[in-house]
Amino acid sequence: MSDPKISFKNVRKVFNTGATTFTAIENLSLDIADGEIVTVVGPSGCGKSTAMNMVAGLIPHSGGEVLVGGKPVTGPGPDRGVIFQQYALFPWMTVRENVEFGLKIKGQGASERRETAMHYLGLVGLADFAEAYPKTLSGGMKQRCAIARAYAVNPSVLLMDEPFGALDALTRVRLQDQLLETWSKDKRTVMFITHDVDEAVYIAHRVIVLAANPGRLQEIIDVNLPFPRTEDIRLSPEFTEIRNRVWRAVYHRDAQAA
Amino acid sequence: MTTVTDTTAPNQVKLNRQALSTFGWGILSFAGGIGLWWLATIGGFSELPSPWAVLTRTVELAVDGQLWTDIFASLQRVLIGFAIGSVLAVPIGFLMGWYRTARVIIDPWIQFFRVIPPLAIIPLAIVTLGIDEKPKIFVIFLAAFLSAVVSTYQGVVSVDRTYINAARVLGASDGTIFRRVIIPASTPFILVGFRIGLGSAWATVVAAELIAAQSGLGFRMQQAQLYYDLPTIFVSLVMIGVLGLLMDKIVVIAEERLTHWQERV
Ligand SMILES: Nc1ncnc2c1ncn2[C@@H]1O[C@H](COP(=O)(O)OP(=O)(O)O)[C@@H](O)[C@H]1O
Ligand SMILES: [Mg+2]
To answer: Domain B49-258 is of which CATH architecture?
Structure first.
């Protein structure tokens, strides 16, 4: 097996909030292969976002190592695209200007930028809305624009923090299919946080289940289902069986505690 | 490729009709008020000049040129003071929002001066700056500056972290984040500050002219008071109101233009 794309080695994260300290993540070790789609599930507050933000370079870790492509993470960079749950589109820019933002930083010229932006907007079905402002878009369209913005700078890693969490079920399923279809053409590494167990199983090679207090690895569940994933797979007994395993891993401890 | 089509794109509601009827009601309400005023004066219930007398005096003062001189004098003071105040407030507000050190050093002074009404500065300003334009412009400057600086820095500190993070993960440097995220994100706050600043500048100039001036709408009112010239007092009052409303409207229009991207609820 080739070297992992993302590596957590005995990672610890402690937040200092005034006088008290809070251990958000304890001794997390995990490898994510190049081109792999990994979903992360776990109870609220178990450190999913914290783990992802450390890979993104948005927050420092307190111990251990976080590696991307074999190199320690020292800060954010365009090699890792991040898609936030709240979309985080810049409302003062048009859809196209949002997508061009990262390209301009890369130093692309105006016409090249425009071409790249339009290509990715076409990919997510937003070409007709290039000149619209985000406020005129629905939640699903905003998130597709955010996806286009992240894709446009061509990151080798995509970090997605509950990206479809705020969307209705139908839009969510469509965006899952779209994500998989884009991935099948260009196999980037995807780390995808979700609280939806169906979603976690449907799009993933592996589901990482975290436990809370302190945040730590609970279980890794392989999803041995073929790609491309289809509705038939979603409705198959094999899918249901894996789904149930993930469900139990996430909720079993809570059930015992309650 | 699956094409995704949402049916949930929010439709932009045009509020034009509603705005028109609001405007219509405003006109109607003013007309009613003036009607009552007129009835009161012809009925002899009040010593106030009738609307007709005020209108006649307005025309007299306008033809005579004095009205324009007064308006020009007052407007000039306000615009100069406001311009200097805002031009200084924006960079200082950004500095305070961006650098903690700047904030902790400057903020106590701003908080202190904010609680002193600008008019209370006038005696000091007259003694130190003389009785010409300088003290008046200075107090207007102060009034405009304090409102604009506070809202600029509040705008900067309240920029949503998510925008900053989104820019950082796309590779933006601090300079880029400042230019392309912080400035546009705080524009709505800055414009609110301008609006408040212009309002208090206008309120201050009139009061300043009541105390020491040789021209201006405030000065004219004060002169008229000496001669018991009620119509002229009314003309000045109405002009102060009309000009204040006009300036406010200009800022509101600028605000709508510059921040059209905002979601309004
Ligand atoms: N900046 C912070 N300061 C202090 N505590 C934090 C901070 N960010 C997150 N936490 C805490 O760390 C834990 C994990 O948070 P998070 O990673 O957001 O959880 P999840 O995404 O799994 O819901 C939570 O208990 C949260 O309160
Ligand atoms: Mg989270």
So the answer is: Orthogonal Bundle (1.10)
